[in-house]
Prior knowledge:
Elements lengths: L1 H18 L6 H17 L8 H10 L3 H24 L3 H23 L1 H4 L3 H5 L5 H31 L3 H21 L8 H18 L13 H28 L7
Helix pairs in contact: 4-5, 4-8, 5-8, 5-9, 5-10, 8-9, 8-11, 9-10, 9-11
Amino acid sequence: MKRQRDTEAWLKKEWIKEQEPYRTDPDKKEKALAGIRAEVNGQVLCYQPGLPEIIAGQLQYLSAGYWILQGILLAVMLAVMYWMNRNVEDAMTYIAAGSAFAAFAGVIGVQELGRSMAYHMAELEQTFYLNMKQMLALRMILFGGMDLLFLTVLALVTHQGAEYGIGVMCIYLLVPFAASNIVYFATLTLAKNRRARYIQTGAAILAVLFSMMPAMTQEAYRTAAVPAWLGILLLMLAVLGIQIRILLQKAVKGELLCWN
């Protein structure tokens, strides 16, 4: 019995000796865990890009067709206005041409805005950095800035031949621009495929024709009519703001994603 007890004690001693290298030192364990925590806390688990990076990303993914059409529209507008400056003296002709360009200007941006929806890529874009609402809002700001830049150049070259003040000319050009954009936004989600572009192009042609109609009578552009033009502009901007808000609400609810 004694020999058996000695053997058991020896085996236990040997087992403890073998397990010695595998024992955990509490101090070392706590130090290692602290290092792991620090490394985890230093990791960026949710990347949030800054505004410059977001804008650069959106500019990068705009189609080449958008920039080409914008350049063509600007070149045609400058060429037409240059020719009119040398050959036309009627102020109403200047206003009619300026109104036509202003009415057509917005369709290029709206078509680009609906491109991802027309090609059923909105859900894929939703999985990247920005959600659909953010993408739509940012693109509308970019396209709006481009359109305002175009309208500024248009107003500068138009008011010289029409002999109206630059402020009044801006009002005259913004009215057809805002009215046409109301139509473009109304047609933005009518079709669930690339046919939407044809609908918007047809709407642009009609908008151009209707925008030139007020120039058929000079009474519409008398000084006394400027407050009426301003009131119409404010009303149309309010309608356009409501349309944009509804579009962004649809984006939040996911109604722009399920198009198939």
